[in-house]
Amino acid sequence: MTYSDVLDGTRWVTDGGLETDLLFNHGIDLPEFASFPLLDDTLGRTALRRYYAEYAAIAGAADVGLLLETPTWRANPDWAQALGYNAAALDRANRAAVDLVRASAADSGLDEVRLSGVVGPRGDGYVAGDTNADAAAEYHDLQVRSLVDAGVDLVHAMTMTEPAEAIGVVRAARNARVPVAVSFTVETDGRLPSGNLLSEAITAMERTAPADWYGVNCAHPTHVLPALDGEPWTERLLFLRPNASTMSHQELDAMEVLDSGDIDLLVASTNRVLGQAGSLAVIGGCCGTDSRHVAALWGVAAPAR
């Protein structure tokens, strides 16, 4: 299987806002907004398996592929240390996450399933990091290697706030010889938290350390639309994982209740994004979304919850 064969040639359902769904809809405590500690006990693993099963049902109903992304957005050294995990425990957690999505893939009974190892930002996903590419490559290398050694088909850097850290993740993935996707987040004006245009960030990466695919996550489609200018770079976009809410990142950060948004607006505005970036093929959700939102994006009935 070549890198291009891993995802190209079909469409893929992926999951929604894992952390917000578990925290607000299921009442599961997630210290530091981290889901990977759920892998440590039977109840947590069961909750994750049930969560992924909903998206397998959507992929089956839509007759498309299923991309299962590991619950490892916070499973990097700084966040792990805050949660009491040393390097060995963190390595075990990342490997256990891959084992869990592999088991969920087997449960699905679907033929077209891929396993994606999620890498999150070193800092807050809503705040631009002060980093450089070399430091980011060194920092993310251990998590990437844990995920690759456990058998992921690709690595996906999500909620990147500026180009340098994303370049670092790509370098770590290249060292581990694994395909890599990078999804940036944008503010309400379509710019990254760093102030870069999405086009600038992707162009900078293409010059320095091209990813295999790009995307946008953790932003409502109405926030993504201002970033799309019809230029050729938009054809490099493959992933779209929108937020349910039209609120800004700052507003969402201050919320103590879940804003699950307007599903009709989410679908309509996502369709507008798809009309301007026709290469998008991996569709799921991010903060505030659950399987009901993702089913609506795919035009199928929502699975039982």
Task: Give an overview of the whole structure.
One of its GO terms (molecular function) is metal ion binding. Pfam families: S-methyl_trans. Its cofactor is Zn(2+). InterPro entries: HCY_dom, HCY_dom_sf. Keywords: Metal-binding, Methyltransferase, Transferase, Zinc. The protein contains twelve helices and eight strands. The protein is α/β, with parallel strands linked by helices. It has a single domain (about 5-300), classed as Alpha-Beta Barrel (TIM Barrel). An eight-stranded parallel barrel has the order 1-2-3-4-5-6-7-8, surrounded by five helices. Helix 3 (about 40-60) crosses helix 5, helix 3 (about 40-60) runs parallel beside helix 12 (about 290-300) and helix 5 (about 85-110) crosses helix 6 (about 135-150). The N and C termini lie far apart (about 35 Å). The model has no long low-confidence stretch (mean pLDDT about 95).
Annotated CATH architecture: Alpha-Beta Barrel
- The neighbouring-strand order within the major sheet is 1-2-3-4-5-6-7-8
Approximate shape? globular
> Which series of helices and strands comes N to C?
HEHHEHHEHEHEHEHEHHEH
Topology:
Blueprint (H helix, E strand, L loop, with lengths): L2 H5 L4 E2 L4 H8 L16 H21 L2 E5 L7 H6 L4 H22 L4 E7 L13 H18 L3 E7 L2 H13 L4 E5 L13 H11 L4 E5 L3 H4 L12 E5 L7 H6 L8 H14 L5 E2 L7 H8 L7
Parallel strand pairs: 1-2, 1-8, 2-3, 3-4, 4-5, 5-6, 6-7, 7-8
